[in-house]
User: Fold these one by one.
Assistant:
Number 1:
Amino acid sequence: MTVPFRRLGRSLAAALVLGFVAVALGSGSPARAATSPCSDMIASAPTGPATVSATRTSSYGKVLVVGSGAYAGCSLYLLTSDELHSLTGADYACSDNANALNSPCDTVLWPALLTDGAPIAGHGVNRNLLGTVTRTDVLSGQSVQQVTYRGRPLYRFIFDDEPGDTQGADLFDPVTSPTGTWYLVHPSRGRVAPGRAQLQLETAPVGGTGPDAPVLAATMNPDFTDLFPDANFPVYTSSADRRNRSACQGACAAVFWPPVLTSGRPLAGPGVDRNAVGTMVRPDGTHQVTYKGRPLYLFFGDAYIGGLPFYGDARIDGAGAVTPWGVFNTIPPVS
């Protein structure tokens, strides 16, 4: 099996993440990718304060980036399922816990933004939203400070090769524990910056084995096309919701049924009734996509990365799920 890459200089990182690609790993220890400083792993504690700045992208508006030093301009992300730590005291979802790729999330796959001293607010950043959290799971039990924004830990991404890359944006990630969605971060209030959501029709097997069913789906991971083209995921509605009102809050939204979020009016693909597509404002200020007034969600069990032997293919695993937040079902196309 071969996998296309935008930059062949990432061969070592690709081998690390894909596992099954036939590339010699040498000693098996990750190394710096010569042409991609944004993807560097963390090997030691920082020696000075980190700076966080804001920049403007074409697709996501203003977002946070590293403000100075070797990684200046590298995109910064938050992980939705990290919120489980503040809700329940559980480990961070991006941690050094075991995962199917056998590579630590917080040092290799999504390197944590560490700081020695209070982080510095660069251009366009609200200094009142900057903070830190103490982590002992990043450098083998060593106590280090990770930069937070509005209380959410910030990370880089292994496949961002250079400043301005946004390969990790809106990535519905099955590797973290639990599954979560990675978003760029808007500087003004620390909310996610998802860009414009895209809805289309997708055919996938119910329960992962069939029969195939055409359903309404959302496109995620829009910039991660090197390894994950056409990343469409079924969307669901909940019986407990009311028009433009979501009963899925807290752990429900952070982990199990992530809301489909958007910046601006969502895009409707072929076969999707654009007049039925809208938005509503959630309690945290984010904008959730609706269909005929019903809030839309993803299901954490549907998350996959095509080509990885650990994570199958597109599927519909959440149909008919009975939960404390209602019964979730997919949306069939309008005949």
Number 2:
Amino acid sequence: MKYLRILLFSALAALSFASCKSQFEALLNSSDADEKYKAAFDYFNAGKYQRAAQVFESLSVITNGTERDDTVQYYWGLSNYRFKDYYTAETNFAKLMDNFPRSPFIEEASFLRLDCLYRQTYRYELDQVPTHTALAALDQYMTSYPGNPHMDVCKEMTSTLNARLDRKAYENARLYYKMEDYKAARVAFKNVLKDDADNIYREDILYYTAMSSYKYAQLSVQSKQKERYLVFVDDYLNFVGEDPDSPYRKELDAMYRRTQRALGKYSGTDDELDKKEKDFMKERKTVIDSRTKTLEKKENLQKAPTTKKKGIFKKNETSQGKAK
């Protein structure tokens, strides 16, 4: 008996589902613009964004060229956005911006498109073309709408994306260092700062530039060591002049003393030099820990900003009140 009840319940549920499905399919195939328009907003306000998007999509064919056209286009995009289909939402918002530049929805659609572009960017190890696309769109939006209510979020997104590009450039250069191709590493680090002097990893880049020149000189044949150690001296003095209190300072000081000895310019004794290096090695763990904490702070800059701040996106809207 219990088994029969379960079968009956399952059959009724399947019948109900099929009925709802057939009604929805009938709605999609309907040519009644008013019926579909009302149903689309009913689904939207009920939080059924996937169905709302489907109805708005089918409705867009009927309302093309009418006064409802931009409204349908906007809420089609917004439904996809709420359903977290950011790729389709971005396409819909972009179409609205291209076809209806004077629509009352244009500013908000432009911002939502930015958020879609931002969400389609990748972590620093991967292709950064979407990051450049998002940054260009952010710059255009902030220029076009300087008083927009989302300015803080836009700045946060811009900062995060720029930090990602900084990390990408820094890590690409550091790859040569890890491969022990110190000549190429120094050139790569120099080029990073040539392209972007304000890179957030500037201190680390200057450090690795100096370390690359030192190790390149150290591994060179004796006849070329002098000129290459002099390159390190220039890099060392450049670093010290810019970051005299850096936690990297003591390690580079040790490299500098060894260089001075190699160049015959060290005025102290070998015992004094050895003692200073032993003292530095005792402090090395502290130096490394300190630098690790600093880098962790920089990594936090790359965390995704909270774009859904209170008051920006409402859960439900009196959508038809805005609609034409």
Number 3:
Amino acid sequence: MTATPTPTSASSPAPPPAPGEGDGVSAAKTDERLVHRSLARRLLGRPELGAVVGAVAVFVFFSVAADSFLRASSLSTVLYASSTIGIMAVPVALLMIGGEFDLSTGVMVTSSSLVSSMFSYQMTANVWVGVGVSLLVTLGIGLFNGYLLVRTKLPSFIITLGTFLMLTGLNLGLTKLISGTVSTKSVADMDGFESARSIFASELTIGDVEIQITVVWWLALVALATWLLLRTRAGNWIFAVGGGEDTARAVGVPVARTKIALYLGVALGAWISGQHLLFNYDVVQSGEGVGNELIYIAAAVIGGCLLTGGYGSAVGAAMGALLFGMTSKGIIYAQWEPDWFKFFLGAMLLIATLLNAWIRRRAEANR
């Protein structure tokens, strides 16, 4: 038996829902974008949280364990060590968010500096000519890695491992063939050296702290990469490609172009690092760089990047690089045996990875 509506209810329009009632609340409850999330939940959703917590803990630890850690000169050294890793860790992190690896990054840095030095010296040209040629060659290496990846569909591990081996041999072989030794000739007395050094290897004084220009390059890359990831369509493409190529392609993401661009970004970072290597030391040892690729990847992983792609941040990679810098120099300032450095790096990598996994599970559970 159904109730018959009264004339008043049938003829009068329904009153508007009161604030906090009716369809507006239902829509807010069903639309995740309109749900208010507490600061704690938003922080738990950030991939760099684990690295930030770890960096604070390491800073406090060495501040207590090493009396000289907080000196201005010590902080300058820590920032410099962090920046030389961070310049490469940031583009490597973007590549990992896009679901790929690059094992050639360490020797690519050396290749970049060798090309710049030897071209300038052999051609007796202004060093800026060598810098420009080095940029083209280094970007060419990145293009080679990216193009081969999208054309052959081979794993990036295999492709970049091959590039790593080829560059290692070329660095040593060509340097010996051209200069007769395993190191390049000094370019300190060549035209353009001082101006190039001011761009890639100079120092800035801020208060009592001497800051290497690499710190400025590092922070600029972090800011640029963060803006790219969070404020541009290309950033959405990077996350989409790392989350799943087929799904990304189905919604119109240019997968091939995105991956090639990411490898070009890694090559650009290698070029910056390579020019600093040259203009900071004047000469380059052709065997340098082997093994550094693992440090760049570890910094990105410590910063929250997943090995499977689709998750991470540039700020997290910067925090991972800062952790490496503080640990490497903190052990020295604490007057410990330097051989323990690799042990602490491995422990930090495992702890940070476990912490990041726990934070991500908590974040997903709270959505």
